[in-house]
Protein 1
Amino acid sequence: MSERAWIDRLQEVLGPSKVLTSVEDRIAYSYDGTFAQQLPDVAVLPESTEEVAAVVRIAAEYRVPVVPRGMASGLAAASVPFSGGIALSLTRMNRILELDEVNRTVRVEAGVITADLQAYVEARGLFYPPDPSSNKHSTIGGNIACNAGGPRCLKYGVTGDYVMGLTVVLPDGRVLQTGGKAIKNVVGYDLTSLFVGSEGTLGVITEALLKLIAKPGYVRTALAEFPSLDDASRTVNAILAAGVVPATLELMDETAIACIEEAMRLGLPLDVEAMLIIETDGSDEEAVRREMEVVERVCRENGARKVTVARDEKERAQLWRARRSVSPSLARKAPNKLGEDITVPRSAIPEAIRRIKEISARHGLPIVVFGHAGDGNLHPNILFDKRDPAQWEKVEVMAGEIFGVALDLGGTLSGEHGVGVLKRPYVERALGPVSIDVQRRIKEALDPLNIMNPGKVLP
Amino acid sequence: MTNPTPPRVSEDDYLRCIRCGQCLAVCPTYRLTLNETDSPRARVALLRAVREGLLERPTDRTAAQFFRCLLCGACAFTCPSGVTVDRVLELTRGEMADLGLLPQPLAALNARIRESHNISAEPPESRLLWAQNLPAPPTGVGKAQAEVVYFVGCVGALFPRSYGIPQSFVQILERAGVDYALLGAEEWCCGYPLAINGDLEGAREMMRHNLEAVRSLGARTLVTTCPSCFHFWKHAYPAALEEDLGLEVRHAVEFLADLLESGQIPLRDDLPEQTVTYHDPCDLGRKSGVFDAPRRILRAIPGVTLVEMAENQGGSHCCGGGGNLESMDPALSQAVAARRIRQAAETGAQVVVSACQQCERTLFNAARAERLRLRVKDIAEILLEAMRR
């Protein structure tokens, strides 16, 4: 009976329709965008900060793990409830609370879908730049908890750069407010930044105050085809050295191109080693056009066979739909993939790609490379079949070696996916003992009962 | 599992799902409930859990999850790893039926169709009641031979509120001088409802009968106003019967577009200006690839300005009438319809045109429930109004 007592309490407080206990529901809340899976004891669907606080208070009282989640598109198993307990879904907290056009801020609940927010503000001439590939199937809360990035981060920065304040339910059920609309704010520690990227381990983000900017009026998007992958990766730095900061600078290797082409039949070239998708934007049409001319010239000088500029919004949208589909379309090549998210200093991109391809050749399993080359964030994806134990063994070794490449070249394990569970074994090596110690103390101070997304991030 | 019947879905079909979550963004049921359980990803995960033993004993509750779906295919259309989710879920419904877990209303529907050869247990002669109050009896009745067979479908033939669709369609055929026949009492259910609810053998019986009836008239073309009959005739009949039908299967929109473009449907030139939006039926558009013909017809009608909804063609949003969701969860089905009719209203159109008796009915009811001043018409109806006498 005592086993069920906390579930009964949840049902009393939230009402039975928001507390899901059937095995069918628990299966639905057992996974994210990875191959990891574990059933929670219940899934809850609160609709307000007060309801989230009530759930967390019950969890604290009964020492039950709480695993917050948005739409569970994560790629590090951060929202998989490995210790059971409560899968806390924020998806029904999806109201846009206040748009302040003078201060250019918007206050939203955590469950707002990122693309919905973007459409809402863009209709009013404003712009929320962070654009993870999952923007149609991920939430602002999840984006903040993972400090999500995306192609536009090269020019505009990551999710965290747009978070001005948060409402967080702490592990003891109290509600914390951080930040505010004032641009300058140096009173006390920067708690907003502490929760950005905390992956649900320090509290539940329920609302966010986000910074907006003016929507760029003009955009040009080009696709550059490179017979040589090495030339493509060198071109990334050449474009930036030429004084242009494109909004995005994306790289895809030949396997990535082949997978998208198979999925979408866009007529992409199948006889090149790499492509770059480059976008320039701004408020001055002439400047945007000139920047694109520079980009075209630099691409050709560095070995591009062909540079095609999208003629209209439809062609542009199609290119981006293609880019967003790279990761999932890899399933066409192999039953499983392990998608990594390393970052290196931009200058080291050509070397990083060479070393990754070498790892692939040595172990005999394909690694697809694509990503946000302009900011040094690459997504090497190892393709394999998990049903073959020999392959799985190799994958683990290869993942370790890929992280090694990133660290040796002065980069790190993750640029935007976060640590979750999958990168946890490598965190100590990336951060060193002092940083780990400080982070552990922070976790213990905020969550002494270790109920908030236990077993994630820290080793 | 104690299931004596071999599984219908192959392992590869569900292992392809990498759980990326892209389908959540387009799934009409998920977008309303915001509960992962109602998402395509969860339905595939549930199937996999049943197969791999994570869920040991499927119950009515398990089965219900596979039937709480519109089978609209928006998920499959967007899936980058190529999971044919709607097809997988159709087969999974069959697996649930094999386990004796077919929900009661659907089991009753199957029994009714097997017994009466139509979805509403009407006597076969009722199939021509819709033709009784036409200006003249249709020439297609009782013919021994014809070029074209018009397969009316159960809803158009037997549901008085949908009579307007076959009535309009045959009047156009008559005036355009098409040599067509109606099967009347010899028309049986196309078999689609049986097939998506696990009774493939029953569906085959319907198919064999219908194909025989059409062949006996020496017809070369079969035309339907119902997108589901069309989809089923075109794709499932040849596959399930393992033979070439020897027939061209066409939907009314394709047939009418050809008649119009060959000058057989002269149009009035005194028509009022009207803004029209077109709703793509899932079985006709996304699942059969017919997007262009209905738009060509509408653009050809004098006075019509065609505007598109935000979600159109392959990315169209279901009307709420798909997959028998209505019999499982009427409130959810109505909420899907409400969302779609609001999308139509946002275009500023005065008329929503569809090419499906089911879409027409659900959208009509939704427009009333939402108190929107939107007329809902079938494409045959708007075309007949525009046709010169």
Note: Chain B has a mean pLDDT of 95.
Protein 2
Amino acid sequence: MSGPGASKKGDLPDLLTAAIFIGFGALGLWLSRNLDGGTLSQMGAGYLPRAVSIILIVLGAAIGLKATRSASQPIEGLKLRPLLIITLSVIGFAYLAEHAGFVLASFWLVVAGTLADPGSRLRTTLLLAAGLTAFGALVFVKGLGVQIDLWPF
Amino acid sequence: MKHLKTLSLAAALTASAAGMAHADWPTDRPIELIVAFAPGGGTDVMLRTLAPYLEAELDAQFPVLNRPGAAGEITYTALAQARPDGYTVSSLNTPGFLTMQIERKLRFEPSEICPIARIVEDPGLFVVPANSEFKSLTDLVAYAKEHPGAVSIGTTGVGTDEHLAMLQLERSAGVDLTAVPFTGSNDAKTALLGGHISAIGLNAGEYATADHNSMRAIGQFSEERSILAKDLPTAKEQGYDVIISSERGLAARCEVPEEIRARLADAVDKALANPEFQAQAAKQSVPLSFQSGADWQAAMPARLERYRSIFALMKEGQ
Amino acid sequence: MNTFDLLMLGFSEAMTPANLGFCLIGALLGTLIGVLPGIGPTATIAVLLPITFFLPPLAGIIMLAGIYYGAQYGGSTTAILVNLPGEASAVVTTLDGYQMAQQGRAGAALAVAALGSFFAGTVATFGIAIAGPMLSSFALDFGPAEYVSLMLFGLLAATILASGPVLKAIGMILIGLLFGMVGTDQATGAERLTFGSIDLFDGIEFTVIAIGLFGFTEIITNLERSGSEGVKVAPLTRLWPTREDFRRAWPAVLRGTGIGTFLGILPGGGATLASFSSYSLEKKVSKNPRAFGHGAVEGVAAPEAANNAAAQSSFIPLLTLGIPSNNMMAMMLSAFMIHGITPGPTVLTNQPEIFWGLVASMWIGNLLLVVINLPLIGLWVRLLTVPYRLLYPAILLFCCVGIYSINNRIFDVLLAAGFGLLGYIFRKAKCEPGPLLLGFVLGPLLEANLRRALLISQGDASVFIERPISLTMLIATVVLLALMILPSFRKKREEAFQEEEA
């Protein structure tokens, strides 16, 4: 169909979709490998997970096949900085909240989280962290009774 | 100043690690009461009602923490990992605590958890819609004999009180019933009232607070009639060997010094004797039944064996 | 006494200064926790439950009920302003509400949501008063077979939700179904898809997925554009809805109210299903379905009306049968029981002041909420003018604390971070997360009821067509399917005709 010099084929977002669907389908099949399947009228624990996984794989394959034939489309602007920093700051919060209490965890979350934004300034960040931590301690922990220690001791 | 604080903190930590804080117990720190169920559930409301009375008895603080999940396993695991200094206690529920030892690989060692005191004993019973033709367990069994599998019993899942009761009735009466699992007893009640299932299993406490014009209990599964259902014949009286009741109490790590556990048990005993607490429990239809930790623990192995044999039968039937 | 006298009795009970005060406290507190993402009304009510011990029964219950429907109002605020659905029923509100906010029409979206909710709340409250017992018998007719048909219908309706290709929407629903299966299988007790982790034993919390896929992902993609500087909301054009907005919103509100009142009575996924299906309905009947997902006012009005109507009518099974239809109602039941009151038909006859007082207070509470919320809109909208670099760390913190507070479990926070990552990948693959959430909510209900139905019928699948309600819904599903396929047929034919003419 396409003449010489025409752009490459492959709808990348759709190919990624296919990969996700097939990936989850495969994961579902693997995780339910030891479960009892049963029959339609006497369904075992593994019946529906397997059925859903298989449909997902078929669907993924169909989308993928179509995507390789459609016009090229790129995946929009990938930037790892916000993705990594936000994810890591939340993971850090989780760790600190368990071992060091709310105050330190909240401070870390705000300070680390603002690093995801290239335009952040230290002074504002520290003020913001202090303000939000105080607000959180008062409203969540004291006011609404969220069951979390404030301090590490 | 700061140095001083750090020093005293370090000292306190060493002291408690060595079990030296023993003498001060329970006044120097709050005693955490971990509840294995979400806020608002029966166990949670009961323990939150009890906490202030324990506080008064021991002159200590009892903050309630909820660690719901995995039928209590998350809480028992947390308890087994807590420092054995008497500042962490948890709720303990049977048959869940026992049945989880049968089939599951647990993340804690059940023998490390010692009951402090039983607070509630709430027998199971079977309930049918008010317009049902079953007036007793005998009626239900007779019908099931003629129509194998046609009598459906709503339960709240595999290995729960209701399911164990149903399996015992099947074994004792030699009938074939169909267990229909529901997400909770409220879903089961709705299906019962809608006439979609024949009967459901409930606890006496739940039944006491349900609307008696729309449903009727046909037999209870305790050794003796519960204080909540004095007019309802037990399964034994009707000729079936079915015994199941849900017991709720408190537990601590076995490594907690004997003396501290005894004082806790004593406080529970006194709180339960308080007429004010009794009045509140009666309003919530909680069948109080104190039993010392030692007695409760002594009764557990026989029950575990009973459940084990029921589970084995269930496996065979599959 | 006739209904009117009883209603008057209710109002005289609800209007005492003390009860009015507790209603206000409840509504305010509800709005607050509704606005804070992740902090749900269930935890707050649990904390307040022991306090109600010391209040007269009606006052305590009025306050708790106020928290519940107040949270429904507050929940839509975060959905519209920052794309954060606090609970399942607010997911749909994000689809068009957040778009409206991005276009500078946050005020209009909030006002339509508040007024639509008020209207729906009023209708549903009177529905409870006039037809409560009748409606509850309708709920009882819903057995496992009926649920299966309803869930099938709901899942099909979910594909309409997405504005992208249908195949992707179906795939996302399937992934949602898989997530819904994580945990202990109810029927067999087997652990499924848990990786052997005890933390997944009870499955995944809805809020964890919603905050991960919506909240965290939104923050990451916003920052990606070019740091916080790139996040610019269109300037506020107008605080209130236009006449055109009202004209388009009111039929949607009417339909949403109807759907919500009926589906709210059903235990479990009622409220969620109501908001999802009313959105799908609007998109189907609209002359301009392409506008949905890009700031269509009907897309805010209908689901908001539906979920508030459902919030009110979910009281019906509790008040008339004594059976709570969801966690919140179970908590309300505890509140009744603390005072030794067993809700049900006996309360209706013996203690009418409790039932009618609560019903009247619900209407008053809804009125109070509109009065509180309309002036607040100005304030909320100003929140959008706060620079994003100050706003997003706050959202991040609120989300983390909110998730933790559900089960007091750090694991949930980590899981949400994982869903944030997954949501990011979905964005890059141009997959919309809405259908996934519906699959997640409805899937377990579908599976459980399918098994129950077949257990009860002893494996006979004809139950689904033998029961009238179930059959009706299956027919509706087929009709919907036909409607979905036909337009594309017609379009293709039209295109073919045009080519021939040309």
Note: Chain A touches chain C through 69 residues (CB under 8 Å).
